[in-house]
TrEMBL record:
UniProt superkingdom: Eukaryota
Keywords (A to Z) from UniProt: Membrane, Transmembrane, Transmembrane helix
Keyword Membrane: yes
Protein name stated in the entry: Uncharacterized protein
Transmembrane parts of this sequence: 15-35, 47-69, 81-101, 108-129, 135-156
């Protein structure tokens, strides 16, 4: 709207859209902050949780960033980039002392993404402050810094933070074909491929049956 009404002369349809946008933001932000922790608490399938305090801090950080972009940027882009850079460093320090997630790998990559942002902000501020404006040089510096940060994070992840998330193995296609196209297949093979059980039980007799001695017959003509 700044481009259409540089002096904020909202009228007719513009005032309607301005009010609608403001109300939408005012409703969305509190609801998103409130419902995310509630969704986490009722979702029994979630293994990684985000701290509600971090979610609130992140929303404040985002609102502050938008406010900087709409105010200080119009007066001095270098100063806006410098302030944004300092605020980002403070937010990075916050993620170090107050871990956002209950999983180390997520915390690591959250900090690395913020460090990449801080690196870009620092280069942008320097770019507007100096007279050397070789675009290729600055782009190379930016992507070079990102690659170094990501490489460091990758090494730290593999050395300090092993993966703790394990998912069950998918259906083995070979076993399914054997089951569908052959008349007999060992029950033990099916059990081993598709479950963690290696023995079956006779519930009526209460006795244990060794699965190695059971053949599962399958008539392909039935």
């Amino acid at each position: 709207m700044n481009h259409d009404c540089s002096v904020f002369c909202y009228k007719d349809e513009h005032i309607f859209f301005a009010i609608l946008s403001s109300l939408t933001l005012l409703i969305y932000l509190p609801l998103s902050i409130m419902w995310r922790p509630i969704w986490q608490s009722i979702n029994s399938n979630a293994n990684i949780y985000l701290s509600p305090q971090f979610l609130i801090s992140k929303s404040i950080f985002q609102i502050f960033s938008v406010a900087l972009n709409k105010t200080l940027k119009h007066y001095n882009q270098s100063l806006e980039g410098l302030v944004y850079f300092v605020v980002t460093l403070v937010f990075i320090a916050y993620t170090i002392f107050y871990k956002p997630y209950n999983y180390h790998r997520c915390n690591l990559w959250t900090r690395i993404s913020l460090l990449c942002l801080a690196w870009s902000l620092m280069l942008s501020s320097i770019y507007y402050a100096v007279t050397y404006h070789n675009f290729s040089f600055w782009i190379s510096m930016q992507f070079g810094g990102w690659i170094i940060l990501i490489a460091i994070a990758w090494v730290i992840q593999h050395k300090k933070y092993p993966s703790l998330l394990y998912s069950p193995k998918g259906v083995n296609i070979n076993t399914l074909f054997k089951f569908a196209l052959t008349k007999q297949v060992m029950l033990e093979e099916v059990i081993k491929k598709h479950s963690h059980a290696y023995e079956v039980y006779d519930e009526s007799a209460g006795s244990q049956i060794n699965s190695k001695n059971i053949l599962l017959s399958h008539d392909i003509n039935s």
